[in-house]
Amino acid sequence: MQFTDIDGVTLHFAHRPVAGRRHLVFINALGTDFRIWNAVTEVLGDDVSTLVYDKRGHGLSDLGTTPYSIEDHVDDLAGLIDRLGIEDVALCGLSVGGLVAQGLYARRPELVSGLVLCDTAHKIGTQESWNARIATVKKDGIEAIADAVMKAWFTPGFHAQRTNELAGCRNMLVRQNVDGYIATCVALREADYTGVAASIAAPTLCVAGDQDGSTPPDLVRSLADLIAGSRFEVIADAGHIPCIERPEALAALLHAFLADLPAGN
Ligand SMILES: O=C(O)CC1=CCC(=O)O1
User: Which residue from 95, 130, 134 has its CB within 8 A of the most atoms of ligand 1, so it is best to mutate?
Assistant: First the structure.
């Protein structure tokens, strides 16, 4: 287990460097911890150096001061990358993690050689939708929204056939720190990265699960439309969390994307 303190917030992470291989940094969705990337990093194997971590308020990382902004999550990630002495990264950000990836690019463009923006957007949800979710979770806990979130995360096929994984993922969601969950909902509510997305000049791949119930393919395509030269791909038979539902398909896209990037530092 690896932990470090970034400006008073303990972050849980797993760094797996492979000599001579570019770093790919994975940034999580709301209500998840870094185990969601296990199957993807297993497929990528020794072809890439990897860094996964738990956002503040999630997994084994500290809660820190609430509420959060996306910029707070960017501070944590920039601090973690610097602490590990990594000078060149490709980012794979899922959902709110995609906003953090866009924010890190805006802050440190020299650090970021490429972005994979997975099931995410420049703006996710509305003031009303986040306020409603925050009110429900404050009153009745994460359990109260868990079934609806599972519907957005996974396809009906996953619900019908992969019942053990579904139960485990639901456990992961409801066991997140409720204050960290709400604080990240606030960050999402306030984030509009339309201008940031339009400024991205690094190679970018936008990816959507074809049955994503949270950031549907049309929304992800609208993100891709903002980013000059970006590519857009749809993963079949996937909801909002393709790294769990279709890890081999996402890993194949990541592999091809990394192979096309210019050599890093
Ligand atoms: O929890 C959801 O509904 C899906 C989601 C939205 C932002 C995020 O990170 O996950």
Answer: 95
